Amino acid sequence: MSFIEWIRQPWPWYVAGPLIGLMVPALLIMGNRTLGISSSLRHACAACVPFDIHFFKYDWKKEIWNLLFVAGIIVGGFITATFLSNPDPIIVNPKLAEEMSGYGITNYTGIIPSEIFNWPALLTARGLIMIVFGGFLVGFGTRYAGGCTSGHAIMGLSNLQWPSLVATCCFMAGGFIMANLILPFILKL
Amino acid sequence: MDNIKDIKKPVAIIDTNTDFEVRSLDAMCVNAATVAEPKWHIIKYFIMGILFGIILIKAEVISWFRIQEMFRLQSFHMFGVIGSAVVVGMISVFLIKKFNIKTIYGEKIVLEDKKFNKGQIYGGLIFGFGWALTGACPGPLFAQIGYGSTIVIVTLFSAIAGTWVYGLFREKLPH
Lengths: 189, 175
Hints:
heterodimer, A: 189 residues, globular
């Protein structure tokens, strides 16, 4: 197997997880930056639509590193798609595949199910809720919580912050409630 | 008269600090480096972002299906990724503190403590709902767009709108 074939495979958790964890010391040693991504959404507001809102009236240019970091993530995604992508469909738990086929989701070639997330779907109730409303909850919730998976779960827990543990448990609780109790009704729409 | 002068001085100091105060409002956005680094050095964060994007995709943590598996306890993968990332991060932060490791500019590494407020509960639950719906937290949103899922641009703009609405109603929300 050539190197490129080897690297194209999905990386196991014990490779990817530690690499993600190493982002924490890398950013700290590079210049005292703490890993956190949802802040970039706030900087975008402060840069483009601050109006007269106190929360957005600060010098976002001081946080420009964060915007460059997320721009890098976009480029990283593009590079992976172009040179490093896995040609095979994602392998999921058969139980999940069985449940999803009940909602008409059978295409596992993409990173998101093309049956739900596509442009025409914006005109359907299901698509609108999952694409637009879902995104709104992500942006509203992360800022309300003061961080997301990177800022609280990874950076906060790495620094032994108990409020981050509370936040992480609530992320998980919210996800469990939505995925198991509410999402089935939305997927049936 | 001297007293009045004394009172005025600290007020002026607080005024100059306002920018920092606003940025630090939710204890997440005060990553200020005080040592001036050459401007072009900022490109290192762009490169780190590229690496982070590649890792996120190759780990499949940006997959809607992996997120659904996680919340249905059907796979260990996501828990393994987040868990091992936290362990490595914890050891790193411990070592940085223990050996007083400095930044490459010789600056002391400062980590702010996060203050608890009820937002971490309410906001956390709301984000959890969004995470299970979209299958993405903020980092993966950017990675998915780069990977070619153009529809996620809509999700990203919604997320920015959500952040903006939070800022608008921040004072009225329970914290």
